Known about the structure:
The chain is α/β, with parallel strands linked by helices. The protein contains 16 helices and eleven strands. It has two domains: 14-252, TIM Barrel (Alpha-Beta Barrel); 261-347, no CATH class. Helix 14 (299-309) runs antiparallel to helix 15 (317-328). The relative contact order is 0.11. FMN binds at residues 18-20, 71, 140, 172, 212-214, 234-235. Catalyzes the synthesis of 5,6-dihydrouridine (D), a modified base found in the D-loop of most tRNAs, via the reduction of the C5-C6 double bond in target uridines. Specifically modifies U20 and U20a in tRNAs.
Amino acid sequence: xxxxxxxxxxxxxxxxxxxxxxxxxxxxxxxxxxxxxxxxxxxxxxxxxxxxxxxxxxxxxxxxxxxxxxxxxxxxxxxxxxxxxxxxxxxxxxxxxxxxxxxxxxxxxxxxxxxxxxxxxxxxxxxxxxxxxxxxxxxxxxxxxxxxxxxxxxxxxxxxxxxxxxxxxxxxxxxxxxxxxxxxxxxxxxxxxxxxxxxxxxxxxxxxxxxxxxxxxxxxxxxxxxxxxxxxxxxxxxxxxxxxxxxxxxxxxxxxxxxxxxxxxxxxxxxxxxxxxxxxxxxxxxxxxxxxxxxxxxxxxxxxxxxxxxxxxxxxxxxxxxxxxxxxxxxxxxxxxxxxxxxxxxxx
Length: 348
């Protein structure tokens, strides 16, 4: 995909939400084995860190992850513009502003959901970023915070950022309570108000409006797509990743990249092998595949083996092959023992 195609030539009808400590580069590589077309997001990265920190560590990714969007946290227009230029230079397909995270740490930096109270400032940030880059600049927000009226708050933010040129608005259909609830509670306690997002789409029929929050799977996603332009899944996609294998045939009318869970795992193994050679710990990669066999016989043993053994110093791919044996008691690819397949991967 060429930079700039998102929202213009390619509509990201499905996206995996940015999730702190979950949607890192290892997770995204694995998710790409399940869908070629899902839009994948980074974890939120502070704009100041991008400007002043280790950019390769913060923004590095594999070419196979496209289409990929980088989510930034910040509230200083000039700093966000500078960070957006760096993100664009890294080759990302989109840069997104976080206006939805409710954590105390984020609030102390004056970004995240607290910016729902400052729509004009968010619009200034969008305008500065649009002037700095040619890739899409988007916003992910809540429907409001604390005692705000969502009908007023969401319209005010949308009016401001879309007028400033935001290419899309992804809306988590819950309020955020900035005091009294933890970030975890903020994902569940405030009621979902999908109809509020639908009304926003009616208000802006020509703008890309995507929906997020509590969406359980592809059946729900397809229902939402009757009312909005895109659907973003978070925990549902992460905890049951194989559900993403339906994304391409159902939402994009193309074939899926992996026909079986085993094929998806085999496609991920060369990446894990290369990362192990670079010194990456096995657990940093296997934590993202714990849910691959969700609901299947042996899934608990698979998770237990990876959880217990992958954290050990020097753990290698033999742990993954042993865990796979817990699921099926079968050979890795139907013809060769796991040990033989492991040796082939190591030699590749």
